[in-house]
Amino acid sequence: MENLDVMVLRTLQGWRAAGRRALLATVVRTWGSSPRPVGSIMALCEDGAVVGSVSGGCIEDDLIDRHTRAYVQGAPSADATAGADHRMPSGPPSFVKYGVSADEAHRFGLPCGGTLELLLEYDPDPASLGALIAALDAGRLMRRSVRLADGGVTLSLADTPGDLVVDAVQLTNTFGPEYRMLLIGAGQLAEYLATMALFNGFAVTVCDPREEYRGSWGVPGATVLSDMPDDVVLAFKPDRRSCVVALTHDPKLDDLALLEALNTDAFYVGGIGSRRNNEARRARMIEHFDQTPQSLARLRGPIGIYIGSKTPPEIAVSVMAEILAVKNGVTLPRDMAVAQAKQAREVQPNDPGALICGVR
To answer: What are the transmembrane regions (predicted)?
Structure first.
């Protein structure tokens, strides 16, 4: 599944290239609790079609009612009876704020005390949108600046991800390419993990030189490769929007791939295995590959968070949750780490949960 921001931009560009009127809404400020973070975007077409989200749905409904003809043929709203023509405005961007009063917060489904402000851009230039999408498809991190006076857009390459910035002159939002996941191993656990990664907006690549595993792969949308994993890591060029997860349990495949991944900017590098297997992996790397505890500090294992998982799909949920937490900059409590949780519960080696897939 495509990254949500890219999906919004691509759909909006399609509408505009076809000559249809549309607007782009961006969350620029929030106060208190908010359903969507600053920088979230949504596109609205003149016929009422919506892609993306800026709230739980009520604000989207209000924007449709105010700026499109979608509801005109149905029961008229209060605005319609007052003579509103429901045509999308033209001209420079405008700000709109929701949830200023308690009544408005309740009306628009905002949490208690929640307020958010949107910037609405009317009829964004399709050529500029196309250039942005092409850059994102090429894996570039892009900065999009919008002049508030006239809606003019400037695109530039960004060195690092950045938060949305808005002042009296312009709004600047940074758009990154898709997050990427490289899985070493095409077994059952990899299929569950790949499925969840795809619907979380990751582009997934699976590497397994073993034909017996690749031949039964059943997850559409993932790229499947047969080269040796360490070569694939080098060609993959993991960056700060990439994660590498080794799942084969075979040191010949996992170890070299993980070592190569540790030399990159990947935000997450981890290998499957029990506590004992992970300790053995670290010992091998130190003894045979001149690693140190410091150079292996970023290597995660046992991977996942402790949820008492005992089956491959549950283990995949555990691993995906940890990857998303790291991606989102969330520090998980120590007692949620698998190794610490297992030690605290004094799990014995013959515990069934410790044997499934050799994960725990």
So the answer is: none
